[in-house]
Amino acid sequence: MSDADEQEKGLSLVRMAEALVFASSEPVSVKALEERLPEGANIAAVVQELAAHYGARGVQLVKLGEAYAFRTAPDLAFLCAREEESKRKLSRAAQEVLAIIAYHQPVTRAELEEIRGVEPARGTLDLLLETGWVKIRGRRRVPGRPVTYGTTQDFLDHFNLSAIGDLPGMEELKGAGLLSARIPAHFSIAPPSAQADELSDEEEPLEADDLEELGLFTPRDGEK
């Protein structure tokens, strides 16, 4: 294959990746790109070239965890400012719980209470689950098997984070109103011990009975 053919093939792959990301309402994962692009395509090189193409444009290709999406360039974000949906208007308590989950995931309800020093209000976790920023990860491998919570791909997307390790520092959190004086001094801002989509060694996956018990799955008639 000539250099010209190689270049044309590369451009074709970039155009295909561009179409896939542009047409998707959700960030497109690396796995999805691998499945949709021709076998053997160098996904990293394709994405790098596509990102460079949009580098100085009004929209840019951004990495969100292990997925990619087009987003408004940071310096033009003010043009697209809009009021947050009501479900995204979190109370101070919900913001603090969200911050703790983000920095301590995987975390249980009891651990949330211990870290914050105040028991989460009834419905706070339910509200965070409804926003799509928090999910039930699994169960802790300890007596009682308490449920563990963590953040989602939507959380990374909303806060423009490429990975959970890109979370801001303590002062930035305070400035954003995500921490208050009630957070104890031992509150940690170290990177979480687990990735958003991976269970840690301390966790076990949810089983069918767990899903039904937690209201995450309702068996159809005749199923059990």
TrEMBL record:
Transmembrane portions of the chain: none
Source taxon at top rank: Bacteria
UniProt region (Disordered), positions on chain: 190-224
Keywords, in A-Z order: Cell cycle, Cell division, Chromosome partition, Cytoplasm
Keyword Amino-acid biosynthesis: no
GO biological process, one term: cell division
Family annotation (InterPro entries): ScpB_csome_segregation (IPR005234), WH-like_DNA-bd_sf (IPR036388), WH_DNA-bd_sf (IPR036390)
Signal peptide: none
Compositionally biased tracts (Acidic residues): 198-213
PANTHER family xref list: SEGREGATION AND CONDENSATION PROTEIN B (PTHR34298)
Protein name: Chromosome segregation and condensation protein ScpB
Species: Candidatus Tokpelaia hoelldobleri
